[in-house]
Amino acid sequence: MACAAVMVPGLLRSSVGTICAQAASLRLTSGALRHLTLTSIMKSKRKTDHLERTANVIRREVVSAAKVCGAAAESPSVKRLHLLVADKDFSFKAGQWVDFFIPGVSVVGGFSICSSPRLLKQERMIELAVKYANHPPALWIHNQCTLDSEVAVRVGGEFFFDPQPADASRNLVLIAGGVGINPLLSILRHAADLHRNRVNKGSGYEVGTIKLFYSAKNTSELLFKQNILDLVNEFPEKIACSLHVTKQTTQISAELQPYITEGRITEKEIRDHISKETLFYICGPPPMTDFFSKQLENSHVPKEHICFEKWW
User: Pfam families given for it (predicted)?
Assistant: First the structure.
């Protein structure tokens, strides 16, 4: 479940009900947060644990209380959470993850945020999507987490898209495998927010074109597909997607059919989008990220234009 960011360039929300407003009063004392953090770090000893794997990755110092204010099945194996984070010092960049501290669970989770920074700014909420696994944080989320469950979160990660208004316009190619869609959806949503802002105000960062390549086992495991298609339909001149399924056994719906390709994402599809103005963001299983990052390097894409994160 943990991730490791490897290379970075220089550089719609769902309704969750009135319970989110009621959760705004949540507070954890600094002593409780410090105890939760230190206890979890001391007990996370396995080499495969998120904290060890990301020990050298940049994190924010702020550990913030959060309350679950929405939960739903995103797919047969993935549960989506909305968390209210009232702490005004909590912020993140599109593509980053959180250390996920659960009272009573010694192992710390690591989950990418899939919502945009705008949702946090407007409603103090973040969204996560967690795949079922035999790992204590994931098991807790799937089997024990309920509305009003209290946790704590801390932002980390060097894999993000955070352009400033005066930065040069860039095209984005987003390559996702499985739950690797999570940070890339955050980036996609953030880019859409930036484009809306520029259209409405006539100023701000100018977003280039965005192409999402997303592969999963079948259409039921293509997460957030309606959210993705909504953005494609809202900004057809800016955003396009190619959804791949590798083990589809049922008929594909008429709505999805135009966007679906059966089979893996190919090297040629990615190579066709190479340009000096394009940044590539890749997130998925290690073999996938290794393959595409190597192919891009072999095609003479500058290393600073290739950003990838591996998920285990």
Answer: NAD_binding_1
Contact status, residue 279 vs residue 173, Cβ threshold 8 Å: yes
Rounded distance between C-alpha atoms, residue 311 and residue 152, angstroms? 22
pTM of the model: 0.87
pLDDT at 270 exceeding the cut of 80: yes
Give the model confidence (pLDDT) of 127-147 as tens digits: 999 999 999 999 999 999 999
Sheet holding 78-84, edge to edge: 109-112, 97-101, 150-156, 64-73, 78-84, 125-131
Alpha-helical runs (H) found in the chain: 19-22, 30-43, 50-53, 117-123, 136-143, 181-201, 225-234, 267-271, 286-298
Reduced to 3 states, what is the DSSP secondary structure of residue 65?
strand
Distances (CA, A) of 47 to 40, 53, 131, 136, 288: 14, 7, 20, 15, 22
- Cα–Cα distance, 16 to 18 (Å, whole number): 7
What pLDDT is stored for residue 34 in this prediction? 46
Which one-letter amino acid corresponds to residue 26? Answer: L
Encode pLDDT of 187-226 as tens digits: 999 999 999 999 999 999 999 999 999 999 999 999 999 9
- Listed in sequence order, the residues at least 6 apart from 204 whose beta carbon sits closer than 8 Å to its beta carbon are 165, 194, 197, 198
Q: How far is 309 from 312, CA to CA, in rounded Å?
A: 10
* 140/216 Cα distance (integer angstroms): 24
